[in-house]
User: Fold this.
Amino acid sequence: MRLVTAGVPISLGRAVVGIVSTHPVAATERGKRILVTHNLDGTDLTGYRGILTTADKSAARFHVPVVHKVREIDHLLDGYIVALEPTTGFVRTVYRPDSEHNILFATERCNSNCLMCSQPPQDRDDADGLTARNLELIELLDPPPNYLCITGGEPTLLGQRLLTLIAALRDKLPSTTVHMLSNGRLFAWPEFTQAFAEVGHPSFSIGIPLYSDLATAHDYVVQARGAFDQTIMGLHQLARWGQRIEIRVVLHALTTRRLAQLAEFIYRNLTFVDHIALMGLETIGYTPRNLDRLWIDPKDYQAELLDAVEILRLRGMNVSIYNHQLCVLDRSLWKFAKKSISDWKNIYLDECNGCGMRDHCGGFFQWATKLHSAHIHAIHC
Amino acid sequence: MARQFFSPEAYGTKISTYQLLPFRFTRLNGREILVNECGEFLFAPVGTVESLVGRKLDTTSDLYASLRSRQFVTDHSSSAHLDLLATKYRTKHEFLLGSTKLHIFVVTLKCDHSCLYCQVSRQTAEHDEYDMSYRTAEKSVDLMMGSPSEEVTLELQGGESLLAFEKVKFIVGLAKEKAAGLGKNLQIVLTTNLANVNDEILDFLKKESILVSTSLDGPAYIHNANRPRPGNNSHEITVQNIDRCRAVLGQDRVSALMTTTRLSLQHPIEIIDEYVRLGFHSVFLRPISPYGFAIRTAKKIGYETDAFLEFYKKGLAHILELNRNGYFISEVYTKILLTKILTPHGTGYVDLQSPAGAGFNVLIYNYDGDVYVSDESRMLAEMGDTTFRIGNVHRHSRRELFKGEPFVSLMDAYCNQSLPGCSDCAFQSYCGSDPIFNYATQGDPVGHRATSAFCKRNMEVIKHIFGLLAEGDPVTLRILWGWLTNRDQKEMSEELPA
Assistant:
């Protein structure tokens, strides 16, 4: 699925966020719209928030922001929200009303450097620009989505700007459930967590990864010394303020060996968490570079996975398995498997043709074509 | 600047030195069991503690990793584990927060039963001489509501509480009014043999949302033998009135307790089956207290402890079998210990705590205004020994009760952490201190563990439970965890891996 394209900006002084319209609309409705068209000739452009066109308009002058010579616009449907970037001319799809997997991308920066990061961090300060874009996006969401995910990078690096963002969600989209993916480290600071909790969003949860019951192993996976201590303290600070918390464990060669001990550790020390997600590895981002330390065929950790799920469920903890294919998952674990892969990166393989469980199976990340379990097969019911 | 990746060694995998955290240990079934301050345990090969203490343990081993993860040792790789240990210690001892929560009122000594094990010298008099006076009731409620706890439980007992129903009504009304004024959550339990229940009483119990706790010792031939009354029909009346209470108050508003007598010891299966027959989902295999009329037989306790343990083990096996076959029923004492062993939480059970629950977590307000630290200490007083009477509602404030000599003199024996024989016991974190039991059976509150029936019983029960856990039968584990999470085997199989 295409989520980004690019063209050449004209009279685009700053980033513009607007709602795609593939047909001209009445003058009164143009203020939030970005007209997307192959052919501008004869169209009145007055009042649009921006214009996207595949045509070459180098010779023309405009009084509205325009990106022309856009490589591809057919993926942009009415109601999509796009962000037009000055200088680069990138056109990013930032919201699709027909998807349940929309995100607010907070920042590309991160204070960890996980070996298997699917979205490797960038060391540049993008926080102000992205915050402005996200605040504008929130203004445009009508009707409100059921669900939004704040992700990055590490959203808490936004500091006060994160609180502004969540306050905007609270005020403009009170009915939208928000999940935020964070490494939890900055919540170790009690003042920050208190301020965060005091925003008082009515339906907010945080997904925080924990990779081991041991600081050394966790810190190695996230490539940050002291991260375990901060995350654990962060989790306790969040619990102190009654925040809803999900623990996320990405399963790979470094995390599966002591998975049962991690499950017991979570129950004993983090009893307050609402959900534990045991997640398959994404082979994108940093993962290919670290494959020799990370890769284990999911078939080969089924015993550990079964143990961990039994331990957590015995204790009444909520647990789900994400990003796994039913044909490699122990059958007794099927009921914990969720179709968790975002629609835009979700595929099935040729091996899945004729599989009787395909409709119930979460399938693959699109990058799994290169590497996946050696045991993928169609299930004949 | 491009980011790079570092090796595991960069994150402190080389451990050159470690510090021990407080833990205790023993040998059990060919292995060592280590238990830390918060009740986390680890089975390990024999010799583990010696090499751990001698700093000879391989710090790259899985065993070391688990000892670190469960907070038996700490090293430079993390500071969070110490904070976690502190948090868990506080969680385990949450029962101390707010001080006294359970307040037992002896509304009358009158009783129509003459039970063999009765802990009170019951009175058959018709007049009100042995009822709590209105003035004493007022003072007692005042004292109760002076407890800092936001959650308070009022338990009304006797004698037979319903033989003083007017007093019961008065106390309930007063307690509710005061609790509302103070913003306290009040739960009310009525302990009764149910023999005198009528429609007026049931309406009252329903209107006031009062829980009913009654006595049921098993099938008729055991119950009636243990609990004589005129007509010898206690069982019939109790069973009838349990049904009647349930119909009016709701199935889960009535609970039953059994006491194990010498006769009961022969019939664990029959007693449990009677609880199942009557639709109960828990049973408390409760030993007889060495008080009241039973104390005269104290010299036989050693024998009785063995016999009780056999009864308990047979009973528990039967209860597990019932659960296996689809009937949800838990054994209360096992569940209390499992909570201590397997979960991060403590329990509110006052008879197995350290510091002892007596006084801190429970107070007894006698009909005559005297205040005791437990029902057992009241019984001692009825037999002429007022050692554990800590004051009187008419003469003492809450502060005076707790600062007075009778209570303060008990303090030395309140914490099993400092009792000889307990201070280095592997099971200290799961057990408690019972200075009144020690005093009653051995003559002083500190007591002597080697000959203590309390110690022997708890040691054996805890070892038995660890035996079940170590055996690790998956169905047994699901049953035990089902008790802790209130799920039956059908729910467990739906919610757990197939």
